[in-house]
Specification:
single chain, 27% strand, elongated, binds uridine-diphosphate-N-acetylglucosamine
């Protein structure tokens, strides 16, 4: 158990070098097994979820190691097509190994991925799409077995632009005969990042970043070197922290367009924001005002992953803000915890109303999930006195050395383990 201690009330000032993207790294780690090849990945964050993916790769028979922010994978020795239940449980995105294993081995055996923190997280879209590529799928005794003698390119229409399903289809399609067209594809930057890796691995991908993505067959390439994009959600989190606590922070090595919807609301709340090519500077006096209705949506809409951290930034904002969550059914789990600090949040189904309060007072909280946990740290940074967040290592799943990063910016925060 990690215990985060925060003494609130300090302004944040300085430079935050944005970490590499967790959600872009994970599908690329899965893609590294598509053929017998070596991948060298730069800017990979050091996180629990990345460790879990590397353990899966080693279990499958690959060499996989991380040194600082570089990951090296040699997938020639891959000799298994199944992922044990314990490894599946460690990380929900282990499900994207399904498409990659099917492509490489013609078979994938795994159990449904872990966790239901944010509500139901079915994988029906993934399975239906793989069936359309020619896979036979059995679900028995808690195991999902996908097999395909031959995968055939197909035109697949997704009824909802699921990020994971789009990634799984792209991975499986690299071994399909002929072209695969995904209509209604997710448009997130992480999809473009996966496409860029696949292109380097010798696969023609067009349209990534739009709702129609076309994937050709993978030609064999022996070595791929690829740099992971910046983590737009980590950037959004630090931006929300500086907005709420007050300060002057420069986010470096980031693509401002990837989280412009978050910056839009922070500007509306009263922050001064200047964006340059690869950096964002945010100034805030810590006295924000409420913002117009926020609605989470698939990219390029407002990201569901940034919803809890924006909520935390609005707790002391003058006026009433409203957030509607359309992506996950249970993503306001941070709200009851934030109320312990004195926040005024009312949740009714998928809508949360936040009425700004004058002051928040330190309290003991329990991190409910990764982004909810980050929201609690932000609230702690602007609460009076000491806040303690008990965390079953959720925050470490997504934020690299977050306590140290915030300390560099001047926050009074430290972590202990128990
Ligand atoms: C990815 C991100 C996650 C982010 C989410 C939405 C990774 C590792 N995770 O998750 O951080 O919050 O995108 O931006 O990149 N759904 C179905 N059936 C399916 C698949 C999804 O009903 O087969 C539903 C889900 O229950 C959810 C919605 O679609 O309500 C969004 O899910 P999806 O886009 O697939 O998210 P993930 O890929 O799991």
């Amino acid at each position: 158990m990690d215990i985060w201690h925060i003494r609130g009330g300090r302004r944040l000032e300085g430079v935050y070098r944005v970490q590499g993207s967790k959600n872009a790294s994970l599908p690329i780690l899965a893609a590294s097994i598509l053929g017998p090849m070596e991948s060298e990945l730069q800017n990979v964050p050091q996180l629990r979820d990345i460790d879990a993916a590397l353990r899966i790769l080693r279990h499958l028979g690959c060499e996989a190691e991380q040194r600082d922010n570089e990951v090296y994978i040699k997938s020639e020795g891959l000799c298994r097509s199944g992922i044990p239940h314990e490894l599946m449980l460690e990380m929900r995105s282990s499900v994207i190994f399904m498409g990659a294993l099917l492509a490489r081995c013609g078979e994938a055996r795994l159990s449904p991925p872990g966790g239901c923190q944010l509500g139901r997280r079915p994988i029906d879209l993934h399975l239906n799409a793989l069936r359309q590529l020619g896979a036979q799928i059995e679900e028995s005794g808690g195991e999902i077995i996908c097999r395909a003698g031959r995968l055939r390119g197909a035109e697949i229409r997704l009824p909802f632009p699921s990020v994971g399903a789009t990634e799984n289809i792209m991975l499986a399609a690299t071994a399909a005969e002929g072209e695969t067209v995904i209509r209604g594809a997710a448009r997130e930057p992480e999809i473009e990042a996966l496409a860029a890796y696949l292109e380097r691995a010798g696969c023609r991908v067009t349209g990534a970043g739009t709702d129609t993505v076309t994937i050709g067959e993978l030609r064999r390439v022996s070595h791929v070197s690829h740099r992971i994009i910046a983590d737009r959600i980590a950037a959004a989190t630090v931006a929300c922290a500086a907005a709420a606590a007050g300060g002057d922070v420069e986010l470096r090595n980031v693509e401002p367009a990837h989280f412009s919807t978050v910056l839009h609301f922070l500007k509306q709340a009263g922050c001064v924001i200047m964006t340059e090519n690869r950096s964002v500077r945010l100034r805030s006096d810590g006295r924000l005002c409420a913002v117009g209705p926020v609605r989470t949506e698939p990219y390029p809409g407002f990201p569901t992953d940034a919803q809890p951290v924006l909520m935390a930034a609005l707790l002391r904002a003058r006026g009433r803000s409203e957030i509607t969550e359309t992506i996950f059914e249970n993503r306001f789990r941070q709200a009851p915890e934030l109320r312990r600090l004195g926040a005024d949040i009312t949740v009714c189904r998928r809508r949360a109303v936040i009425r700004g309060v004058e002051r928040l007072c330190g309290a003991e909280l329990n991190a409910t999930d990764l982004r909810g946990g980050a929201a609690m740290l932000i609230a702690g940074l602007c609460a009076e006195g000491e806040t303690l967040v008990r965390d079953r290592e959720h925050i470490r799943r997504g934020y690299e050395r977050f306590d140290a990063c915030l300390r560099v910016l001047g926050a009074d925060i430290w972590m202990t383990e128990s």
